[in-house]
């Protein structure tokens, strides 16, 4: 019984989830093709940007997050705050480990291993972009990864909220120390807007919807009928988001294929390493899988809007640092989907909730 096997889990996945890797690859190709052959599309979409956040992407991310927020009730949030171990894993991994290992891993590969292909000055800029990424853990997409691993939605919400509070105070000094700069600019407009768009509004919408439906039709209808209507919304939103993102990034991919591939190496290694640290720590502490998986995935993913905005403000739009943060966007989804698959296949390692 304990072997709730991968096959059984796979049978519970929908059509989109089962072949998600295929759909992601197709969406990346479609996005790049649109950017190359229909340049008017990214030009129009770029007009709908506010504080470095694409409004069309924000709407799609909202659609991805909303179904998960429907599962959150106030009681479960209160209970989540009484379980500090998962919050400790998330906070320590994100702020006392991740930025520093990102610096070490990226510096080793970009300055030493790849020195024959990357000039020293450019390598230093790539490292700077990687560090900015490492100091900006995820705010929005982690809800999607949590959903795909059947994470506890209330606990994920608390993990992300605590993460954002720490980010307000820790991001600037960590980046300043690791990069040796003193004029680190934190775009608080981007940060505040992200919190509103990706946490406050989806949670408020989900909470109001849940309250109205449960009061009107009952909890059984809500869980067995209403929630099922949103089964594919998160996946469809993810795929449409990828198309838009890669519509903007087509020129970057085509113009810098070698350097993108080289930058992707340390970013990928770092992502797997941080996931292993947090996920393994959660296993050692005997945390349930619904808390352990999101704990590992929050640290592994990044807050790209913030990272790109900071890189541009410090080094300029065409800098190597900004390119490195963009490569983070390209690497994120395929790598995170691999980690989601690992988390789902190792579910039986963790204690089952009674």
Highlighted features:
354 residues, mainly alpha, 17 helices
Structure description:
There is one protein chain. The chain is mainly α and 354 residues long. Mean pLDDT is 81; it is low at 1-13. A hairpin with a 2-residue loop joins strand 1 and strand 2. A two-stranded antiparallel ribbon has the order 1-2. The protein starts with 5 loop residues before the first helix and ends in a 9-residue tail after the last helix. It has helices at residues 6-11, 15-18, 20-37, 40-46, 55-69, 74-80, 84-113, 120-134, 142-148, 153-179, 188-217, 219-226, 233-255, 257-284, 289-300, 304-315, 320-345, and strands spanning 49-50, 53-54. It is globular and about 65 Å long. Helix 7 runs parallel beside helix 10 (153-179) and helix 14 (257-284) packs across helix 17.
Largest sheet: 2 strands, antiparallel
Q: How many helices?
A: 17
- Could you tell me the number of beta strands? 2
Residues in β-strands, percent: under 5%
